[in-house]
Amino acid sequence: MSEVLAGREELIFQTENGSLSQSDTTERFQLAFHQEELSFRVCELITFKRKLQAIDLPAMLMSENQDVEVLHMPHCDRLFVLTIQNILELKELLAGAFTMLELNSVIHRQLVRRPL
Amino acid sequence: MKDILRRHSVLKEEIVNAINKQIKMEAQSSAAYLAMAAWCDTRGYDNCAAHFFKQSDEERKHQMKFFRYLTDMECDAISPSIGESQHEFASLRSVFETALEAEIAVTDSIHDMVRVCRKEGDIATEEFLRWFVQEQIEEEFVARRTLELFDVLGEDKIALGMIEERVLSIEYSAEG
Questions:
Q1: Dihedral sign (CA B37, B43, B44, B47)
Q2: In Å, how far is B20's CA from the nearest CA of chain A?
Q3: Measured at the alpha carbon of residue B131, what is the angle toward residues B169 and B115, in degrees to the nearest 5?
Q4: CA geometry: angle B127, B20, B128, nearest 5 deg
Q5: pLDDT higher than threshold 80 for residue A100
Q6: Does A85 touch chain B (CB under 8 A)?
Q7: Residue B74: what pLDDT?
Q8: Rounded to whole angstroms, how far apart are CA atoms B2 and B140?
Q9: What is the pLDDT at residue A2?
């Protein structure tokens, strides 16, 4: 969690094909997934997570012709064309990353901000 | 490592989802009251129409209060899409019965939100909801009292005229 990357970017969570890191300088998150690299503000990352969660995976699996889902993220003017495999990987990545971010919040509340 | 999540997103996801659900419910209520107002207005129940126009405005204000709370907390507030409202009613009484049922549903939903806040330990949002809990006591009282007029006065033309006369004067007073 505290592995220091280039500059002041810190790795939050990593899976086989992706990682999420945070920059304390810009207060933004950096998502690396396969060959893509994208920057998010907090609210954009939460929106991205919500859009991913809203994808109806059983419907995709049952469908005969729908094997990709297209997600639009206006903040970076990008379209994500995601396969079922991509969706599962991203869900795993974001679930792990948000667990780590919440843990960081608990640490700050209990140890950093705690009055002496 | 900075706590960016806490700095820029004050509320937990469960709380944001519950508030967005409530924003949609308030918007739906506002639209439903508008349909009730239209029904009353076209049938000559001017005061009942005025009552429902006022209720519609209040629901819209509630919606905006929740909406602004989310934006103030740097959370995603979702402008809701709403479904079709009920435009046909069998009688004036059934309009008020529908209104009371809607208010009870809103009360239940607000109470559910308070429970979510307690579960998540969100003291600030629970405190914010206190106003809505009180407001619903008032809203339900007015809806119930109006409906009781039908029990007391009946539903003939004279009774409906008396209800029309009294509907705007029903107010809740916590002192009794």
A1: negative
A2: 13
A3: 125
A4: 10
A5: yes
A6: no
A7: 87
A8: 46
A9: 45
pLDDT of residue B176: 61
Separation in Å, CA A86 to CA A41, A90, A100:
22, 6, 21
Q: What's the whole-model pTM score? A: 0.82
Distance (Å) from the alpha carbon of B130 to chain A's nearest alpha carbon: 26
- Asked if pLDDT for residue B31 goes beyond 50, the answer is yes
A106 has a chain B CB within 8 A of its CB:
no
Q: Which residues of B touch A46 (CB under 8 A)?
A: 9, 13, 16, 75-76
Q: What is the mean pLDDT of residues A84-95?
A: 95
Question: ipTM of this model?
Answer: 0.77
Can you tell me whether residue B90 is helix, strand or coil? coil
Long-range contacts, stretch B134-137, CB < 8 angstroms, 24+ apart: B135/B62, B136/B103, B136/B106, B136/B107, B136/B110, B137/B172
CA dihedral B122, B124, B129, B131 (to 10 degrees): 160
Residues in chain B within 8 Å Cβ distance of A98: 5
